[in-house]
Write a structure and sequence with these properties.
This protein is an alpha/beta fold and 306 residues long. The chain is built from ten helices and 13 strands. The chain has three domains: 2-87, 3-Layer(aba) Sandwich (Rossmann fold), CATH 3.40.50; 96-201, 3-Layer(aba) Sandwich (Rossmann fold), CATH 3.40.50; 208-301, 3-Layer(aba) Sandwich (Rossmann fold), CATH 3.40.50. Helices cover 28% and strands 21% of the residues.
Length: 306
C-alpha cells in the first residue's frame, strides 16, 4: 500500500474513488480505513470491476474525486483525464501443499510452463523451485509486469513459450485464467487451484466452448433478429458494430446496436432477438456463451478483426 499512497499524495489527491475486484470485498473496509488514516476521503465503487479495462472516470468525477485507485490490477493502457493509480495487491497463498498432494497429475511432463494472474505472481518462484527439485524444466515468459503473469484477455506469457513446453501449469484461484489460455493453445493445461486446493486438467472446458462456438456459427446463418452488444467501458470497446450491422442487413437480417455499461440478460429481455454478437470484453463470447439465453458469438468469430 505504501507505494500507492505515495503516488496518491504526489498527485495531491484528497478524495479517491476506489475500484476493487470481487475477491477483495471482504478486505475492502479494512483497506478503506487504512486509506482514511493516510488522510484521504474514500469512495468505494460497488459496481463490479472486471479489470483495469474497467475505469469509471465519469462516475468518479460526479462525486468530485481527485484520483482513482485501482486495487489488484495493473495498468492496461486505458487513457483517462483523471489520474489513476494502480495498486498491484498480492494475495498470500502457499501452493506447495497442493503440489505435494497432486504432483502425480503432472509428473509425466518434463518441460512445464508456469503462468498465473497478477495476485499470485509471488507464488511462482516457490512453484518453480519445487518442480526443478523434481527434475522438471520450468519456463516463464515476461510479457507484462511480472514473469508468468497473464490477464484474462492477454495470454502472451503462455503463448511465447508454447513451443518449448509439454504442458502448462496455471496457478490461480478458480479456472478463469487457465481457461483463457487453454482456448488458445493445443498443449495440455492444468490448473493449480488455490481455492479448491487441487490440480486438475481443463481440456474438457476447451472442447465444450469450441463445440458451442461452432454450433452458434451455424445458428447465425438462420438468425433473423440480431442484437449487437456494445459496452461503453473504455477498455471494452472492440470491433465495429456499425460495419457488422450493415453486413447483416445486406444479408436480409435485422440488427440492433444495444449499448450499455455492463452486459446482462435482463437489459434485453422482452426484445425479439434470436442471436447476440458481443463487442465488449472478449471473454464474454467464450466464457458466457450460455449466460444470455440466446446463441452468442464474439465479433471476431464472424469478422477478420481481433
Amino acid at each position: 500500500m505504501n507505494e500507492a499512497v505515495a503516488k496518491l499524495k504526489k498527485l495531491h489527491a484528497k478524495r479517491i474513488f476506489v475500484h476493487f475486484p470481487e475477491g477483495l470485498k471482504m478486505r475492502i473496509q479494512e483497506i478503506s480505513k487504512q486509506l482514511e488514516k493516510e488522510g484521504f476521503e474514500v469512495v468505494l465503487c460497488m459496481e463490479a470491476t472486471w479489470g483495469a479495462c474497467d475505469v469509471r472516470e465519469y462516475e468518479a468525477g460526479l462525486l468530485k474525486c481527485d484520483a482513482i485507485l485501482h486495487v489488484a490490477h495493473e495498468d492496461y493502457g486505458v487513457k483517462t483525464k483523471m489520474p489513476v493509480v494502480y495498486w498491484e495487491y498480492f494475495f498470500d497463498a502457499d501452493p506447495i501443499p497442493i503440489l505435494e498432494k497432486d504432483f502425480d497429475k503432472i509428473k509425466n511432463f518434463k518441460r512445464i510452463g508456469l503462468v498465473t494472474s497478477l495476485q499470485f505472481v509471488k507464488t511462482l518462484p516457490a512453484v518453480k523451485d519445487f518442480l526443478e527439485k523434481k527434475g522438471k524444466e520450468v519456463f516463464l515468459h515476461k510479457s507484462l509486469q511480472h514473469p508468468g503473469q497473464m490477464l484474462g484477455c492477454r495470454v502472451a506469457a503462455g503463448k511465447r513459450i508454447e513451443d518449448k513446453i509439454d504442458c502448462f501449469l496455471c496457478v490461480s484461484a478458480g479456472r478463469f485464467y487457465g481457461l483463457g489460455l487453454v482456448l488458445q493453445t493445443d498443449k495440455p493445461t492444468y490448473n493449480l487451484d488455490l481455492e479448491k486446493q487441487q490440480i486438475y486438467q481443463i481440456e474438457n472446458l476447451k472442447m465444450k466452448v469450441q463445440k458451442i462456438i461452432e454450433w452458434n456459427k451455424a445458428e447465425l446463418k438462420e438468425a433473423k433478429k440480431i442484437g449487437l452488444l456494445v459496452s461503453w467501458k473504455r477498455g471494452q470497446m472492440f470491433g465495429d458494430p456499425f460495419k457488422v450491422k450493415k453486413i447483416l442487413e445486406q444479408q436480409g437480417k435485422e440488427a440492433y446496436i444495444l449499448a450499455m455499461d455492463e452486459l446482462s440478460k435482463s437489459k434485453f429481455e422482452g426484445m425479439k432477438l434470436d442471436f447476440l454478437i458481443n463487442f465488449a470484453c472478449p471473454r464474454i463470447g467464450t466464457d458466457d456463451l450460455e449466460k444470455y439465453g440466446k446463441p452468442t458469438l464474439n465479433w471476431y468469430h464472424i469478422t477478420s478483426e481481433k
